[in-house]
Design goal:
Order of helices and strands: HHEEEEHE
Shape: globular
Structural class: alpha+beta
Radius of gyration: 16 Å
Helix content: 25-40%
Number of strands: 5
Oligomer: single chain
Length: about 120
């Protein structure tokens, strides 16, 4: 299992490096303000119904994690990320790479009072 994790980490780091290179090339001719204002508010196209802003691990600008919702205990509605995309640098991450990037599930509704240590079983959804 350690070897599989190592291979995933290598692939993840390679994706980050490639996205950083694309970002550098794209920003060479444009000012950062022009680029950010034109692209950062656009989620990438995915099949998942919910998109939540998230910091891109490659370029540190705003990208979008997309996924689905799941009702948990005590009325909490969880966002379960399954994809991440950044329009600025072109980085896309899938389910297992999201863990490496630190993009985790989160509660969407602030009015619920869930157990602070509770989490839905992300593996089954």
């Amino acid at each position: 299992m350690a070897q599989a994790t190592s291979e995933m980490e290598i692939q993840y780091q390679a994706k980050l490096r490639q996205a950083r290179e694309r970002f550098s090339e794209a920003t060479r001719r444009l000012s950062e303000a022009e680029l950010v204002s034109s692209l950062s508010g656009l989620p990438t196209a995915t099949r998942w119904p919910i998109a939540v802003p998230a910091e891109c691990p490659a370029c540190s600008h705003t990208g979008f994690a997309s996924g689905r919702d799941k009702t948990g205990e005590y009325g909490a509605i969880w966002f379960l990320p399954r994809h991440f995309g950044c329009q600025l640098c072109g980085l896309t991450l899938t389910r297992w790479e999201l863990d490496l990037a630190g993009i985790k599930g989160q509660i969407l509704n602030d009015d619920a009072e869930p157990d602070p240590d509770g989490e839905p079983d992300f593996e089954t959804y």
